[in-house]
Design goal:
This protein is an alpha/beta fold. It has eleven helices and 13 strands. The strands form three sheets. The chain has a nine-stranded mixed sheet. The chain has a two-stranded antiparallel ribbon with strand order 2-3. The protein has a two-stranded antiparallel sheet with strand order 7-13. The longest helix is centred in the C-terminal third of the chain and has 23 residues. The relative contact order is 0.14. The structure holds 1-O-phosphono-alpha-D-glucopyranose.
Length: 305
């Protein structure tokens, strides 16, 4: 069955980016000149998704405005004959059918996905998390959709992470591996490194069979007193088969400041108009830092007898 619908939860409060997110959603923070959430929508569309539902919360109106038509702006760009930008702006509002549901309280990712039940109905669907920006030759979600079609069972996108990062993610207990696909024996949300079954982490891309909704209704509050999608997947995995695909490509955790800065730099380096000036600036900075480091290592001459 073709995967046509995607859920993008954007209800989070963005507290790690305060004060930048005091009056604007974290999903609208730009990576170079595009809001982060647009990268996610573009990945979904490039993977064949036709309809997207955002699960929104308070303070998220600018996401709706961004994907809506902007008549005044378009008129102004047309009058000024800025046709290239006009075309880009018009494409944003015609990329996909976009819908919104408001999650009244931030009760966790599991609850956010459950809010999409009516919209999804009885078909497999995708979930993309906005904190995970994937840069890859083949869009990450497309990799997942292709893998899904081999098994028709729910599949989650994964990548190995450093031991010190294990407690930030959902972690799988992998079974057999066929190429880049693991069968999943179990999974656990944000385990400590001592109890983690592996270091293979869930990366914010999921293709889910609709039976997930019944499991989402069974779970209780988990880590952080929230309804966790990982806990519902755990139930799904007890009763059905569940797979995990090792995603190819670079992934940036833009929910963290350092991940956000790395994404900004690497996306800019990939842009023809920015590559040269940015690279020479970075080279200059690195050189200065190296000189500083060498200077610190030098023994001050007054100490030499
Ligand atoms: C969520 C999921 C977690 C997953 C992570 C990927 O956690 O609950 O299983 O590994 O996204 O970014 P969050 O980062 O929202 O706490």
């Amino acid at each position: 069955m073709k995967i046509k619908k995607a859920v993008i939860p954007v209800g989070g409060l963005g507290t790690r980016f305060l004060p930048a997110t005091k009056a604007q959603p974290k999903e609208m923070l730009p990576i170079v000149d595009k809001p982060a959430v647009q990268y996610i929508v573009e990945e979904a569309v490039a993977s064949g998704i036709e309809s997207i539902i955002f699960i929104t919360g308070r303070n998220k109106k600018s996401i709706e405005d961004h994907f809506d038509k902007s008549i005044e702006l378009e008129q102004m760009l047309e009058e000024k004959q800025k046709l290239e930008v006009l075309n880009e702006i018009q494409q944003i509002s015609s990329m996909a059918n976009i819908h919104y549901i408001r999650q009244k309280e931030p009760k966790g990712l599991g609850h956010a996905v459950l809010c999409a039940e009516q919209f999804i109905g009885n078909e497999p669907f995708a979930v993309l998390l906005g904190d995970d920006i994937m840069v890859s030759e083949q869009p990450a979600l497309k990799q997942m959709i292709e893998a899904y079609h081999n098994t028709n069972q729910s599949i989650i996108g994964v990548k190995a992470v450093a031991n010190e990062d294990v407690s930030k993610y959902g972690i799988i207990d992998p079974g057999n591996k066929f190429g880049r696909v693991h069968s999943v024996k179990d999974l656990v949300e944000k385990p400590s490194i001592d109890t983690a079954p592996s270091n293979i982490a869930v990366m914010g891309r999921y293709i889910l069979n609709p039976s997930i909704f019944s499991y989402l209704k069974m779970i209780e509050q988990g880590v952080g007193n929230e309804l966790q999608l990982t806990d519902a997947l755990r139930l799904q995995c007890e009763n059905e088969k569940l797979y995990a695909l090792e995603l190819e490509g670079r992934r940036y955790d833009i929910g963290e400041k350092i991940g956000y800065i790395k994404a900004m730099i690497e996306v800019a380096l990939n842009r023809a108009d920015l590559h040269r000036p940015l690279l020479s600036y970075l080279e200059g900075i690195v050189e200065e830092e190296l000189v500083k480091k060498l200077d610190q290592r030098k023994v001050p001459s007054k100490n030499i007898i």
